[in-house]
Amino acid sequence: MKMFCYQCQETAKGTGCTVRGVCGKTDHVSNLQDLLIYVVKGIAVVSNKGLEAGLKFPEANFFTINALFMTITNANFDDGIIIEKIKEGLDLRDNMKSELVEKGVSLDGLHDVAIWTPDSDEALLEKAKSSEVGILATEDEDIRSLRELITYGLKGMAAYAEHAYNLGSESEDIYAFIYRALEATLDDSLTADDLVALTLETGKYGVDAMAMLDAANTGAYGNPEITEVNIGVRDNPAILISGHDLKDLKQLLDQTEGTGVDVYTHGEMLPGHYYPEF
Ligand code: SF4
């Protein structure tokens, strides 16, 4: 097996992509994404240590949601960027640990996730570590499924939280939940019932993240309304935009204004038409 990913509905044979993603993701990128998730879990563990001691690490918040967002289907297949993100995360994690030690917080008994440090860039490309920490590392299928379901919920939550962040909205509660839930996916003492409860809580926070994004979107671009849309095609050079980030759409429209380049919406960006600003 060169990789294992079953995070989306397109997964091969309905069970898992094991050679290359149906989405086009290479085994190389998939394994790096497994490592990035591992690094993010390490940051969560250290953040939780800080929160227990009354210390916050604001610099970890955007890193965490951005890194989680990078690993959703089709969002980022650039192995160079993922390697840089892993290295950035390891530096961030270690700086956070140093700050905790300076403040007298004990780091005894930390999970490997908060300690692991690759010897070199090349070590990131070796499959050994990603196999050790990837999805199949959890042997019990029920526990594995629940851990992954929670992780996918967090990835979606992170995407919405990042869009809201881009419009100036953040939530300490959502960040704290993401850290708590990420650490819980490492906790072998949690039962399937515990993880079902955490899955439901993930859904609750996902709705909170959507509400935060909705408030940010309507605050910036107005309340959605019934809108007549031109569905034709013109001869101009054009850019097709998808995704949920309305600020991306705003910037693209500003940058193309008066250039003769048309902007077409697609998929998730179709709702962009409902907002009066657009
Ligand atoms: S994200 Fe890509 S690699 Fe993962 S299950 Fe979906 S199609 Fe397969």
Model description:
- The protein folds into 2 domains: 12-219, Substrate Binding Domain Of Dnak, Chain:A, Domain 2, CATH 1.20.1270.20; 224-278, no CATH class.
- Helices cover 56% and strands 3% of the residues.
- The protein has helices spanning 27-52, 58-70, 79-102, 121-125, 127-133, 141-166, 172-184, 192-221, 246-256, and strands spanning 238-241, 262-265.
- Strands 1-2 form a two-stranded parallel sheet.
- Helix 9 (246-256) links the parallel strand 1 and strand 2 (262-265).
- The longest helix has 30 residues, at 192-221.
- The chain starts with 26 loop residues before the first helix and ends in a 13-residue tail after the last strand.
- The mean pLDDT is 95.
- The structure holds iron/sulfur cluster.
Salient structural properties:
single chain; Substrate Binding Domain Of Dnak, Chain:A, Domain 2; two-stranded parallel sheet; binds iron/sulfur cluster
Proportion of residues in β-strands: under 5%
Q: If you average the pLDDT, what whole number results? A: 95
Bound molecule types: iron/sulfur cluster
Helix-strand sequence = HHHHHHHHEHE
Can you tell me the residue ranges where pLDDT is under 50 for at least 5 consecutive residues? none
Number of helices: 9
Identify the strand order in the major beta sheet: 1-2
Radius of gyration: 20 Å
Give the termini distance in whole angstroms: 47 Å
Strand tally: 2
Going by helix content, strand content and strand pairing, the class is: mainly alpha
Give the CATH architecture of the largest domain. Answer: Up-down Bundle
| Largest sheet data | 2 strands, parallel
- Per CATH, the class of the largest domain reads Mainly Alpha
Percent of residues in helices: 55-70%
What is the CATH T-level topology of the largest domain? Substrate Binding Domain Of Dnak, Chain:A, Domain 2
